[in-house]
Amino acid sequence: MFGFCPLLASRMDKQLETDNLEMRLQTLESRIYGGRRNKSAKPAKCAESLARIQAGLTNTANKRERVKILHKKKEDFLLTQAALLEQVSTLQPLLDSNYIRDVPEHATKLQRLSQIHIKEQDQTEAQSLEVKKLFEEYNKMMFLLSKQFTQWDETLRNLEEAKGIRPVE
C-alpha cells in the first residue's frame, strides 16, 4: 500500500494543479467577460479576441508612428518660422524708423515728381522731333548749297577755259 501512495500523491498533486489552473482560468474569464458570458454556454474564443486586440494595438502603433512623423514635420516648420520671426524682430527697429514712417509723405512727393517727369519726357520727345526736323532741313540746305557751289564752279571753269585764262585739263 505504501508503494502506491507516492503514485497516488503524484496524481492528486496533478489533479490539484489542474483544478487550480481551471479555477484561475475561470477567474480570468470572469474578469475579462464579466457578466457577458455567452448564453449558449459555448466556450469563449480568447484567441480570436486576442488577435483582434493585437490588430487594434498594431493599428494604433502604426498611427502613432505617422503622428510622430507629422509632429516632426510640424516641429521643423515651427523652427523655421521661429527663426524667421527672430529675424523680423531683429529688423523691427528698421521697420519702426522715421524713414519707413515717412513713406506716405514721400509717396505723394514721388507721385508729383513722376507726373513732372512724364510731362518733361513728352516735352523732350517733342523737342527731339523738332531738332530732328531742323537737322533734316540743315542737311538738305547743305546739300543744295554744295550742289549750287559745284554748278557755279563748273560754270566758272567753263568760262575761264573759254577765255583762255585756265588751261583745259
UniProtKB/TrEMBL annotation:
GO terms for cellular component: dynactin complex. Transmembrane segments: none annotated. GO terms for biological process: cytoskeleton-dependent cytokinesis. It holds the Pfam family Dynactin_p22. This is Dynactin subunit 3.
